[in-house]
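User: Predict the complex.
Assistant: Input components as received:
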Amino acid sequence: MQFTADGHPSDELLSAYLAEAIDDPAVEAAVSAHLAACAACQEHIAQLRVITALLAELPAPALPRSFALAGEELQRLRPQPWYLRYQPVFRWASAVAAVLLVALLGIDLLAGGPAPAGAPSSTPSAAADRQAAPEAAAATPVAALSAPAEPTVAMKSAGEATPEATPVPASTPAPPAAVTAMAATPETAATAPVTGAPPEAEPATAMPSPIRLASAAAGIVLAIALALGFLLPRLAARRRQLSR
Amino acid sequence: MNAHLDPSDDALIQAVRSGELAAFNLLVERYQRNVYAVALRLLRDRYLAEDITQETFLRAYTSLDDYRGGSFRAWLLRIAHNRALDVLRSMQRRPATSLDLAGSDFRVRWSVEPVPASPVEYAMRDELRRRLEAALAMLPDDQRITVILSDVEGFSYEEIAAITGVSLGTVKSRLSRGRARLRALLAADESSRELLEGLLRQANDGPSERSSGSE
């Protein structure tokens, strides 16, 4: 980029002048001074202007087609981690497990709740039931809160379960033996084939009731599904953000 | 071109990264014209340009995690630019010999034809544009790419520096050299020079022409 031997600025220098891309102010001033006096260089600059104007109005090509990626391609080229691919499954599982857990605890409460403290035949199991009751009460809101996929169902079943369970002891001073027998029946049915012992001989505490077992299973499933469906994706996303 | 209500590029990229894969197609729709136009001007072949545009978006999609802020458009064009350079280098270049013949095999459909000012001026501009297009094809690749990105497609110097991976000063000097060379090519061609001079005379006589440097 300099003046040619015959004193005119080079084409490149004129072009740079037009683009205001001359770094040296002295050179820029020299070009400017030369331009004011030289008709040939004015013509060059004018031609450069026409050329840049023409370049700007070169027609844009028509798009031959859309280059959007097909849905199947989007999936294949950017494989999701397994916990994201199965996220809907985990979320549904957590909702179902929450509902199941609440229902089971409600049934358990209904079956074991009315046994009075004084009843000698069922003291251990009734005590255990009374212990379970607050647990159930405590578990319900937790389950309802931590399953945002289906909070309404969880809440609804919790609401259904509690009023059913509470009126029983108040309204029916019925023989507690009948109630405990009811609760005991499935227990004994389950244990009978194993032990072969008469139902009365088997204490209720030796083996947890199937409802308890089912509740525990539902609770474990709920915890795992919540961890995989909600906690893990969030932790992974945060970790990715931090590493970036 | 894109409305102000549309989600930003970064918001869409974030959506793709967090599993909302279809958001990527909004980015495709936003920039496919840019990518295709540049690829077509660089390669002067419809089908190659189509391939490169497709490849660019596929590559951008699979390596989206490598994008680290800045102009997404420039990042995208950088992928297209690098790919187009590979193809150009591997292609057997047939150097054009005259502005009459060069570009005769360059037939594409153009979407927007500028409205003619006057029939005579329109015919002159049209013919000169054709010759300019041919002259453009005769520039060295680095100058051609810079002139196309700057003067034809309207990218900023900063974007061009990011796309081509050179300094701002290099962009400016390539642009100056490219324009100077274009002018020299047209001036050296008899009929092109006459058209250019004719257009300038018309511009001086009529009010229609305005000076338009870059920026």
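Residues 96-210 of chain B form a domain with the Arc Repressor Mutant, subunit A fold (CATH 1.10.10.10).
Let me know if you want any component modeled separately.
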